[in-house]
């Protein structure tokens, strides 16, 4: 019988679903639109995201997962149930579900995600740690007695981990990831151009021209916002180079954290990392100049995963495969 087990990357920016044997079947923003008058959920995922910033006062678009933690357990449960039902409605056999939760979640929060999966019809649920999933989904053989360093730069947090023998040897988490880079861009434009721009504009700017080190020709971009001087809508032209100092300064928080983990890592494992390089995953690893900056500052080569955004969902699904093969993974929790 075909295997329809599910791997879920419950990210703070997006929730990505991988079905074993099928691949990635769903990728939507992890947001919920709530009607505050009736306390009812109006939309989840892409539909809710499209409403952001365009709703009447009583409708609020919320991110129940923020800064790498679950800030609203009930809403997170709604999200998990909605997506499991969406992708498994045609199943005859109840699926096994593996969930990758943000690294800093508490046991209570993780259990909430597990309960949501069970109440959405999962037969069994497992939790997978994000660095493990990121490495597996990037094709790294983590079963070897060999030190691997994974730096996952997501929406809310950057997680730095050293893995060996299927387990996390050491890890740390810093709030230096996608959303905080967007915030830096908003702040910069407000201070230097006296214009207020929205989150979506800042994110687009970051993806198109943002860089933490000079790695491309200076490029212009036109953005729209509201003038803080006149209060009216304006269009301004910004350049990629002008953002480098502020984004570079912020990215150094991540560099310092990577150095800190390297300093604490046992020498044998550091030797392996020096040979293999650092694996960068997560959407934030696509910020221009970041691999070059980390390599330059640490002296260790960086490689960006072939699937930086999808690898966590893929790896979460792969972990299920290994569990099914009778392989015992110390990071899986069978509730
Ligand atoms: N091409 C790109 N250039 C720069 N940043 C990007 C690019 N593509 C995506 N991002 C950023 O990556 C972030 C999302 O990354 P990802 O999908 O890995 O997060 P997540 O897994 O939901 O979050 P977390 O792991 O923190 O829970 C967003 O801030 C997004 O703006
Ligand atoms: Mg992630």
UniProtKB/TrEMBL annotation:
Coiled-coil blocks: none
Query: Where primarily located?
Result: cytoplasm
**InterPro entries of this UniProt entry?**
ATPase_NBD, MreB, MreB_MamK-like
What GO biological process terms does the UniProt entry carry, in alphabetical order?
A: cell morphogenesis; regulation of cell shape
Q: Which GO terms describe its molecular function?
A: ATP binding
Keyword list, A-Z: ATP-binding, Cell shape, Cytoplasm, Nucleotide-binding
Q: Where in the cell is it found?
A: Cytoplasm
Family as reported in the entry's similarity comment: Belongs to the FtsA/MreB family.
Tell me the subunit arrangement.
Forms polymers.
Function text: Forms membrane-associated dynamic filaments that are essential for cell shape determination. Acts by regulating cell wall synthesis and cell elongation, and thus cell shape. A feedback loop between cell geometry and MreB localization may maintain elongated cell shape by targeting cell wall growth to regions of negative cell wall curvature.
- Name by which UniProt lists this protein: Cell shape-determining protein MreB
Source organism (scientific name)? Neobittarella massiliensis
């Amino acid at each position: 019988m075909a295997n329809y087990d599910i791997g879920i990357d419950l990210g703070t920016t997006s929730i990505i679903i991988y079905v074993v044997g099928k691949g990635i079947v769903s990728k939507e923003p992890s947001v919920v639109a709530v009607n505050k008058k009736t306390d009812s959920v109006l939309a989840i995922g892409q539909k809710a995201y499209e409403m952001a910033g365009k709703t009447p006062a009583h409708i609020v678009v919320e991110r129940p997962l923020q800064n790498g933690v679950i800030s609203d357990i009930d809403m997170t449960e709604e999200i998990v149930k909605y997506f499991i039902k969406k992708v498994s409605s045609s199943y005859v056999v109840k699926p096994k579900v593996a969930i990758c939760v943000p690294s800093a979640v508490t046991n209570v929060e993780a259990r909430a995600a597990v309960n949501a999966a069970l109440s959405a019809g999962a037969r069994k649920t497992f939790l997978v740690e994000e660095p493990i999933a990121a490495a597996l989904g990037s094709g790294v053989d983590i079963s070897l007695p060999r030190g691997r360093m994974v730096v996952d730069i997501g929406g809310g947090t950057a997680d730095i981990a050293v893995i060996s023998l299927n387990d996390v040897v050491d890890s740390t988490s810093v709030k230096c990831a996608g959303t905080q880079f967007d915030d830096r861009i908003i702040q910069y434009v407000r201070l230097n151009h006296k214009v207020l721009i929205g989150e979506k504009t800042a994110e687009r700017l970051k993806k198109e021209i943002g860089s933490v080190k000079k790695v491309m020709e200076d490029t212009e971009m036109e953005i729209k916002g509201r003038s803080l001087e006149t209060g009216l809508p304006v269009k301004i032209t910004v350049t990629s180079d002008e953002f480098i100092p502020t984004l570079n300064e912020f990215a150094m928080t991540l560099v310092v954290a990577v150095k800190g983990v390297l300093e604490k890592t046992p020498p044998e494992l550091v030797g392996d990392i020096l040979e293999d390089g650092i694996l960068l995953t997560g959407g934030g690893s696509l910020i221009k100049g970041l691999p070059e900056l980390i390599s330059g500052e640490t002296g260790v080569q960086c490689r960006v995963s072939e699937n930086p955004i999808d690898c966590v969902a893929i790896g979460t699904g792969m972990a299920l495969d290994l569990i099914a093969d009778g392989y015992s993974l110390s990071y899986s929790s069978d509730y």
